[in-house]
Amino acid sequence: MASQESRAHDIFNNPNIKTIYRAASRTTGPYAKVLVQQSGISKALSSGNLQLSVLDQACGTGVVAEALHAELAAVGTPETNWHLKCTDSSQPMLDAMADLVKEKGWQNVETAKSDILNNGLESEAYDYAFQSFVFMALPDSNAALDETIRIVKPGGTVAINTWIKVGWMDDVNLTTATQFPDLPQVTSNQFGRLMGDGEWDNPSWIENKLRDKNLNNIQVNPVSMTSAMGTPEEVAESSVFPMKLIMDKLWNDEQREKYSTRFFPAYVDQMINKYGKDGIVSSDWEAIVVTAQKPL
Ligand SMILES: C[S@@+](CC[C@H](N)C(=O)[O-])C[C@H]1O[C@@H](n2cnc3c(N)ncnc32)[C@H](O)[C@@H]1O
């Protein structure tokens, strides 16, 4: 467990995380929009003069906050009708989030450091709790789910995005197949298991899990999208840490000895050849968009 915690820690506590995560957030952003739409929050706010308390756990660089502001502004809801708390365990991510709040001039957003596994937040305090692309990368996702349900009000909504298919792996596997055929091909499923526990890439497993927690109105929807992540250089920046995880966990000693220094430059060259140096890397992703309500 400790080693898995430190893996997430290593990846997301890098002081350059804002730059490193830029290409990744171009992929998570469109899914955050779908999650916010599926949550029904804009209907809840526009149907009455409500004051909603909203939480975005593992907020990263703020894709959920952006989706919420866009969706609620579009239905004419003023910021004074809702408050958003954005939490993350990584200080560099929280700094990036605070920069975004300042840049956008949002008045209804606060940021706070919190570990989703033991969040330290008040019980039954939030109408909506969003968790975008974190549950599949936790050492104890069941504890995180229990904690999330604890802090949501009765009748409140839990909203979760997780990956089925991570698109950047296609170019990694193409590099392997064409240049280093003795290295293993890596499936999204294998990669998911390196990051965390549970079967967060399996819609039936998720549905059963939420049913076991007695949640209502469970919606589990796989959604495919083609994502334009950025230039080969930007995608390479986002891939350094996950690629290191693959090398550490799925390659043997001999493979690491032979290919550790050669693989990454070959992967970048392969993307440059395929998309052009200033071209945009495009790949197919699939996520599971999950919403459910805590019973009244
Ligand atoms: C893949 S990023 C997702 C960020 C953002 N929600 C998005 O969709 O782009 C995962 C985020 O989870 C955060 N994280 C990882 N482990 C965490 C934990 N135990 N508690 C809180 N945040 C955590 C990371 O710092 C990172 O910001």
TrEMBL record:
Query: Pfam families under this entry?
Result: Methyltransf_25 (PF13649)
Checking InterPro entries in the record gives: Methyltransf_25 (IPR041698), SAM-dependent_MTases_sf (IPR029063)
Top-rank taxon, per record = Eukaryota
Instruction: Domain (Methyltransferase): give its ranges.
Output: 54-156
Q: What protein is this chain from?
A: Methyltransferase domain-containing protein
Q: Which organism encodes this protein?
A: Talaromyces islandicus (Penicillium islandicum)
